[in-house]
Structures are given as C-alpha cells and as structure tokens.
Automatic annotation (TrEMBL):
Keyword Transmembrane among UniProt keywords: yes
Transmembrane segments: 140-158
Source species, domain of life: Eukaryota
Signal peptide: 1-21
UniProt lineage: Eukaryota, Metazoa, Ecdysozoa, Arthropoda, Hexapoda
PROSITE patterns assigned to the protein according to its UniProt record, in alphabetical order: EGF_2
Keyword Chloroplast in record: no
Residues in coiled coil: none
EGF-like domain location: 123-136
Database matches in InterPro entries: EGF
Sorted UniProt keywords: Membrane, Signal, Transmembrane, Transmembrane helix
Protein known as: EGF-like domain-containing protein
Length: 162
C-alpha cells in the first residue's frame, strides 16, 4: 500500500514539474534566423460609437466598450469583435451584462438577479468559478481537486508508515 501511495505522489510531482517546465519552455522560443514579419495593414475600426450600454441595446449581444484599434467606445460583441452585418457571431453575453436566462451567458456563468437594481438580471460566475479577465475560470476548482488528491495521498502514506 505504501508503495502505491509513493508512486501516486511521485507521479503527481512529476506531472506538476512537467507542466511548469512546458510553460517556461515556451518563453524561450526565438526568432533568430527568421526574416522579420510583414506588418499587417491597419485595421479599420467598425461598430457603432457609444457612451453607454443602453446605446447598444438595438444590436443583440453587444456592449459599449473600448475598441483596442482606435481607443474609442463602440458597440462590440463578446471578445471585442465588431458585429458583422449587425449581428454577433458569438451569441453569449459576457459577465455583468443584462440577460433573461442562463443559456445567454458565457460558459461558467448564470443569469441571476442583480442585488443593487430590482428586477434586473445580470450574468455572474457560478459558484465554484472565479472571475478572471472577463471570463469564469474553473481553475480554482481544478487546483483545489489536485491539492486534495495530493493531500489525501500524503495522509495515506504517513498513516501506512506508522
């Protein structure tokens, strides 16, 4: 039993080291010996200019946000993409956007009643998800599960040696 616990613990440690090594390895890539990239043509900003989300209400699944191309506020779809022919290709509402049901919200979010404004529903991250970069990240749940497995393996190992 102790051998199995040690094996699981070593495997978990190797997996963690491999994941960290992969992340640092990608930072070492170089462009030595390659020709410089050609600059893409300047993007033409698209989307209706706005000041508030209410001004974007006529275009479904948009919100008033700063366009990275020209730093002007425009009605943009989720992912800061302009609508094409008046429609968004991604028909999900991002966090803190008005909604009517859960299936309108991005992955990991649900449509809940806003506590500050009565009868208004907004997309918020579900329980167990963490808001990060305007998305609902389940990394907290995954990290908690990995930590729990490692801790239980350690406890089993210690109890089997006694």
């Amino acid at each position: 039993m102790a051998g199995v616990c040690c094996l699981v613990l070593v495997f978990s440690g190797c997996f963690l080291i491999h994941a960290l090594a992969d992340q640092s390895r990608t930072k070492r890539l170089t462009t030595f010996g390659k020709s410089p990239p050609t600059n893409p043509p300047d993007k033409i900003p698209k989307g209706k200019e706005c000041r508030t989300d209410e001004e974007c209400a006529t275009i479904d699944f948009t919100a008033c946000r700063v366009d990275k191309i020209d730093n002007k506020k425009r009605c943009l779809c989720f992912g800061n993409e302009p609508p094409i022919n008046g429609e968004c290709t991604n028909k999900r509402r991002e966090l803190h956007s008005k909604c009517n049901s859960d299936n309108e919200c991005i992955y990991g979010a649900e449509c809940t009643v806003n506590s500050t404004v009565s009868n208004e529903k907004l997309c918020y991250c579900r329980e167990g998800y963490v808001e990060e970069n305007k998305t609902c990240n389940e990394g907290f749940m995954r990290n908690a599960a990995i930590s729990l497995i490692a801790l239980s393996t350690l406890v089993l190992f210690i109890s089997s040696t006694n």
